[in-house]
Design goal:
single chain; 454 residues; alpha/beta; six-stranded mixed sheet; globular
Length: 454
């Protein structure tokens, strides 16, 4: 049976007795949701139940789209090597059930997995859905290598931070020089090909001429009387054949620099973790020098350099919000970069017309709580921030509602108004993957997961 036939005969799932919150301002009371083929096929207060469908009672809870974390290190092996060609997906432990459980318990269904490390270029980020795998474990790779991640080490001493910046700048400079070397090689190769064709053409004409002379009997005999003295075979000095064109040597393989060239070509954005205002300025200067698509991560002191961030047309990923009061003032990773942080950074970014998104930090289960705090004082929609907005930022279709992907969360109450609301059930691709009573449900898909067209 083909995949299309399997979807045709797949039973629909109906979630009823729920209120549906599609955004902060769009709520459907006493709704019914029909799921089939991994999509929402119908949603509303007067939706009919398909024949032979299975029904799930939502118990009067509130349904929201699955939450999306745009910056997560969930289930990552901290020992994974870092560098431009390192991939976050390679370090993902699909059997780390406790980490996945923590995320699902917070309503998170999709994460942008970012490589972890101390400082420097850490590797590329990956988009992962936390659905069960047919071959065991959890985690479906949606898209790989969506951004190159860099940490300027805001918790380090000034000297170490400067060394990190200089190292990164040299890597980008080396990539530019490699581009120049590749361009020169392409030019030399083209000249070589042209010369080779030309030489081949001349030899062909010579062969034709010699053949013609032989057939007409006009070829001169070596050592004849007509030849000048000393022109015989024994006295002739053989002329050295002219060497043909020499093929240019190709530059050595450098996948690390080739990856950086994709960032310079703006095929990938550069995500720079920089908390201190000085590090944010350094990130902006790096982006300006190489004309990069810049995303600032953390940016605890962004409020001190708002004009510069806006001028750089950078996007900010806000991390965990800190009060700034009582934070250690030392140079350590936890203290130094946060001593001047503010709780209303999202509002200040909004006022400066700087686009921003929200990452959970740790634990993932607090993403919704952080979203409701982050939108305070802004015009942003908390639901949209961590659903449609996050998906759009990651380059994935963020359609919510009929026709959209069936990644859903059933809450015990409306999370937009009740801080005690907790996740009761989670669906990914229309399949139940978590319940609060049983934890993770090891429900593998009936058919192997198919790649989604993005």
């Amino acid at each position: 049976m083909s995949g299309a036939d399997a979807q045709l005969f797949e039973r629909a799932t109906v979630i009823e007795n729920v209120r549906v919150r599609l955004s902060d301002h769009t709520v459907i009371e006493s709704a019914r949701i029909v799921l089939k083929g991994g999509r929402i096929t119908a949603i509303g207060a007067e939706v009919d139940k398909p024949l032979l469908s299975r029904t799930i009672d939502g118990g009067g809870g509130t349904v929201t789209p699955g939450l999306v974390d745009v910056g997560s290190a969930i289930a990552l092996d901290r020992r994974t090597a870092t560098g431009p060609i390192a991939r976050a997906w390679d370090g993902f432990d699909r059997y780390d059930v406790s980490a996945v459980l923590e995320a699902l318990a917070g309503g998170v269904t999709t994460v942008c997995l970012v490589p972890s490390g101390h400082s420097g270029i850490l590797g590329t980020a990956s988009i992962v859905r936390l659905s069960p795998r047919a071959d065991g474990g959890h985690g479906e790779l949606v898209r790989d290598e969506i951004a190159l991640c860099l940490d300027l080490g805001s918790g380090d001493t000034p000297l170490r931070r400067l060394n990190t910046l200089n190292t990164v700048r040299k890597q980008f400079t080396d990539a530019v020089e490699r581009r120049e070397a590749l361009d020169i090689y392409e030019e030399d190769l083209e000249e070589y090909t042209t010369a080779l064709k030309s030489a081949s053409g001349e030899d062909s004409e010579k062969e034709k001429s010699e053949k013609k002379e032989g057939e007409s009997g006009e070829r001169k005999k070596l050592g004849s009387a007509a030849d000048p003295p000393g022109a015989g075979t024994d006295s002739k000095v053989e002329e050295k054949k002219e060497e043909g064109p020499k093929k240019p040597a190709s530059p050595p393989r450098r996948p690390d620099l080739d990856l950086i060239l994709r960032v310079i070509d703006r095929e990938l954005p550069l995500r720079v973790t920089a908390h201190r205002s000085a590090d944010i300025r350094n990130a902006i200067e790096l982006a300006r020098e190489f004309d990069l698509d810049l995303v600032l991560v953390g940016a605890s002191e962004a409020h001190l350099v708002l004009d510069e961030i806006a001028a750089a047309k950078a996007t900010v990923i806000v991390g965990p919000l800190h009060s700034g009061e009582g934070a250690p003032a030392g140079e350590g990773v936890e203290g130094g970069p946060l001593r001047r942080s503010v709780t209303d950074l999202p509002a200040r970014l909004t006022g400066a017309k700087i686009p921003w998104h929200l990452a959970s930090g740790s634990p993932q289960r607090e993403l919704w709580w952080r979203a409701t705090r982050a939108v305070s004082g802004t015009s942003r929609d908390a639901v949209g921030l961590v659903t449609r907005g996050a998906l759009s930022f990651l380059g994935i279709s963020g359609r919510v509602g009929t026709g959209g992907r069936a990644d859903l969360v059933i809450w015990s109450a409306d999370p937009a108004s009740d801080p005690d609301a907790r996740v009761m059930r989670v669906f990914i691709g229309g399949r139940s993957v978590y319940t609060v009573e049983a934890g993770i449900i090891p429900e593998a898909p009936e058919n192997p997961p198919r790649g989604e067209k993005l």
